[in-house]
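User: Can you recover a sequence for this backbone? Please restate the input before giving your answer.

Assistant: Of course. Working from this structure:
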């Protein structure tokens, strides 16, 4: 049983239990180990914390603090970190724990104070610690710009340090506080007028404030003079990419590879850029070189798998995907293994692969169900897709995505009763869900004569999202079915202008045909067919009018 947070032990050097065994830190450490083997980190944290009350063993207290962090017992972790610091004042790890727990609690003054201590005792010196701040805090400040306040406890102590003002400027830029960024980089340049990194950052801030050409000219000048700095060249290439200057960015990344042929970020960026251009041999070269560096290896394997799928080399793709054992693409790689097996005619093998993964790792089950169901739906195995989502709903009955997708698959399979029932169940639990309102309204417009109800549902969806082309198309199709061609034209034309979609094109083409403008209809259909040759609604429409 998980001990509730209110029962978390208070750290004390004195044992509290009279039983002999329970007065032993070794006993509680063993209890903690057993809890970890049972995959019960909360119980492990409580046991280790109890052991820490009975011992001054720093290794044991460290273990207790790490277990508390892993279980989410942050108050207990902070308490243990404080005890750790009392026993070993020079240790960095307890300070790091105090910083992390204070930040998690959004106690910015406490987090800032812990950060100031970390910088002061950094083994590489305060200057290096300050230069590391943008990398350390980037994730926090990108998502929460108000956390720039973490720097306030540092401002007075490091007011004369160019490194602090440089870090401040970079983080303010990340937080999109351009005024603060400009002021901070100006202070950095005042402290160190010849420091090229501060000059480069000032140029980047000028670009962000709209002085693009001036800022680029300044940045290029710094790079020409200090081109040995790989970080500077990488910043230059990324800025060019963000500005949409792809050709210049490619040249900048290639110039960086001349400085360091194994620079992983340049290899990665060039691999993806060349993939967009369809230069498959170049993609293979960059990504295999990236894999050989040992950096971003999982990314390299994943995109090599994508490349080989596009080339039609499915067995090679399977080999690359199977090597993705971690990182951001691990689940998608497993789904693509299944899909690739399906492309090889081994659908059941692909499904078995995903079922085995679900059995081994329950945490991944929702994502694997979703991916398998969508794959089978796209591949036209609608009955099997219904089966997958039905199984998923038996385990996760409140998952709205599963029920919505089962409705889509059931409609594709011809089970209109299930399709409508699922949509109505979703609408009952959330009457204002615009996606479901539109889906049910469109379903009724396509499959029934209940056109008045369909119009009401779609209009409710449109009231919350008046420029959504999918909803505009749905309403236009209702009017088409009702015979109001003028109203249908108003909505279908707007939907077509907003979204290049084969179903919207099928509907507008059908309207033009009904209006006697058959040449326009054929042009609309032909353009859509070139881009989406296998789309089922478009093909069905063309067959109905003898235009396939």
């Amino acid at each position: 049983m998980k001990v509730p947070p209110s029962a978390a032990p208070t750290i004390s050097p004195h044992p509290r239990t009279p039983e002999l065994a329970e007065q032993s830190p070794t006993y509680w450490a063993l209890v903690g180990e057993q809890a970890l083997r049972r995959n019960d980190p909360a119980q492990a944290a409580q046991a280790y914390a109890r052991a820490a009350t009975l011992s001054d063993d720093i290794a044991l207290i460290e273990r207790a603090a790490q277990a508390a962090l892993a279980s989410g017992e942050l108050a207990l972790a902070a308490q243990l970190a404080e005890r750790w610091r009392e026993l070993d004042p020079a240790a960095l790890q307890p300070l790091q724990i105090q910083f992390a727990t204070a930040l998690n609690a959004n106690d910015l003054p406490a987090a800032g104070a812990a950060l100031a201590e970390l910088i002061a005792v950094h083994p590489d010196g305060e200057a290096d610690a300050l230069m590391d701040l943008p990398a350390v805090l980037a994730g926090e400040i990108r998502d929460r710009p108000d956390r720039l306040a973490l720097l306030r406890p540092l401002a007075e102590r490091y007011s004369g340090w160019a490194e602090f003002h440089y870090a401040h400027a970079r983080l303010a830029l990340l937080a999109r506080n351009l005024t603060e960024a400009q002021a901070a980089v100006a202070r950095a340049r005042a402290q160190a007028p010849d420091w090229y990194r501060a000059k480069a950052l000032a140029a980047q801030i000028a670009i962000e404030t709209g002085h693009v050409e001036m800022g680029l000219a300044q940045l290029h000048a710094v790079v020409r003079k200090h081109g040995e700095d790989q970080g500077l060249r990488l910043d230059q290439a990324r800025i060019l990419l963000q500005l949409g200057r792809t050709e210049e960015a490619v040249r900048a990344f290639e110039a960086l590879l001349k400085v360091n042929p194994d620079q992983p970020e340049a290899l990665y960026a060039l691999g993806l850029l060349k993939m967009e251009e369809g230069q498959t041999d170049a993609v293979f070269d960059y990504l295999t070189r990236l894999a050989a560096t040992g950096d971003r290896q999982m990314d390299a394997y994943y995109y090599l798998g994508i490349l080989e799928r596009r080339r039609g080399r499915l067995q090679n793709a399977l080999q690359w995907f199977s090597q993705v054992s971690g990182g951001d693409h691990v689940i998608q790689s497993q789904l693509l293994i299944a899909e690739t097996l399906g492309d090889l005619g081994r659908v059941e093998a692909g499904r078995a692969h995903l079922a085995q993964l679900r059995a081994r790792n329950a945490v991944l089950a929702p994502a694997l169900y979703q991916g398998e169901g969508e794959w089978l739906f796209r591949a036209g195995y609608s009955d099997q897709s219904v089966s997958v989502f039905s199984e998923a709903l038996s385990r996760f009955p409140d998952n709205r995505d599963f029920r919505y997708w089962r409705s889509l698959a059931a409609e594709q399979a011809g089970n209109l009763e299930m399709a409508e029932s699922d949509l109505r169940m979703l609408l009952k639990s959330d009457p204002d869900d615009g996606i479901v309102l539109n889906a049910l309204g469109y379903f009724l417009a396509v499959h029934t004569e209940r056109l008045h109800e369909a119009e009401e549902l779609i209009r409710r969806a449109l009231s919350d999202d008046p420029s959504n082309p999918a909803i505009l198309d749905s309403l236009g199709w209702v009017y088409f079915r009702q015979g109001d061609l003028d109203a249908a034209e108003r909505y279908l034309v707007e939907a077509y202008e907003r979204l290049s979609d084969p179903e919207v094109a099928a509907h507008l083409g059908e309207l033009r045909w009904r209006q006697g403008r058959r040449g326009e209809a054929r042009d609309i259909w032909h353009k859509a067919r070139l881009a989406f040759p296998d789309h089922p609604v478009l093909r069905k429409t063309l067959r109905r009018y003898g235009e396939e």
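That completes the design. Confidence is low (pLDDT under 50) at residues 1-21.
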